[in-house]
Specification:
Length: about 290
């Protein structure tokens, strides 16, 4: 026995046509919704992993490169972050400062340059020293709009707030002048009263140096003689992992490990300048707010 439907075999034509109208309207609505989600970026169609610009997991250099390039002004030199070393943790941000910013810092500093000193660990006072033969001066934090902008860029680069930074120090080294290897962190309580320990340093090169003047890390771990610029380094520069000064580049290195212990591999110095002269600017960053 064949059981017939309520309407017998098949639907009445009128009903069938209203179902297809509903289906058509729903199809249009879904297509519209799908296109809207795509346009507003709520979801995306994955492309094959080999496409350009897709970085591997943990490939920090290319992540930073991709992000930083977005902020590149028209006509400005390419900017990217290069990881240099894990012990100490160090990276360089290429073309961090423009030529105009470098010149601005040098011009502000020039009238006030005095023989560089080191900090006495018992009194916290500055004292003359043979380990440091450069000339330098400090520029007040937030001293003008250009300094404010540089300090904001440093905060973005390091993830450490502007208020944790000491004032910028500008240094000038002439032929033969140097800064012997030292750590930027303190071994006493006096110097850590304001702001706590120095956690990291950003060293900005305000000029190129024809020969010598490298920043050297004598305790760094790695096979440095395989570096492509090894042959261009001075004897002092070959005494560890070295960064050659290049105008506008900013070297970031950490004096503290992620577990808050001090990192002795952050020992560093400025090699003697052999030809030309060197201008640099240092920003020391503290664990806590540094009151100025
Ligand atoms: O000039 C350099 O390369 C090193 C400077 C330095 O060590 C410092 O300012 O703490």
């Amino acid at each position: 026995m064949v059981v017939k439907g309520r309407y017998g075999r098949g639907m009445p034509r009128k009903m069938a046509s209203s179902y297809s109208t509903i289906a058509f309207v729903m199809l249009i609505m879904f297509s519209f919704l799908f296109l809207s989600l795509l346009v507003f970026g709520i979801f995306f169609i994955p492309s094959s992993g080999s496409s350009k610009g897709v970085s591997k997991a943990n490939d920090l250099t290319s992540i930073a490169h991709n992000v930083l390039n977005k902020f590149n002004d028209k006509g400005r030199r390419d900017q990217w972050v290069e990881l240099l070393s894990w012990e100490p943790r160090a990276s360089v941000y290429h073309n961090f400062l423009s030529k105009e910013e470098c010149e601005h810092l040098i011009n502000l500093a020039k009238p006030n340059m005095v023989k560089s000193t080191v900090v006495d660990s018992s009194t916290g006072k500055s004292m003359d020293s043979r380990v440091r033969t450069s000339y330098g001066t400090f520029l007040a934090r937030g001293g003008d709009e250009i300094i404010k902008n540089i300090e904001k860029k440093i905060a973005d680069f390091t993830f450490i707030p502007v208020e944790h930074g000491e004032g910028l120090q500008v240094l000038h080294y002439e032929v033969g002048q140097k800064y012997e290897p030292h750590n930027d962190y303190f071994n006493d309580e006096f110097n850590t009263k304001n702001g706590g320990q120095r956690i990291a340093t950003v060293l900005m090169y305000l000029s190129d140096v024809e020969e010598g003047g490298e920043t050297v890390f004598p305790n760094a771990k790695g096979n440095f003689s395989s570096l492509p610029y090894w042959d261009q380094l001075s004897e002092c520069g070959k005494g560890g992992f070295s960064v050659k000064p290049k105008m506008g580049d900013a070297l970031l290195f950490w004096s503290m490990n992620p577990d808050a212990s001090l990192d002795p591999s952050s020992l560093h110095g400025g090699c003697p300048v052999i030809r030309g002269n060197k201008w640099s600017s240092t920003k020391w960053l503290r664990v806590h707010e540094y009151k100025v």
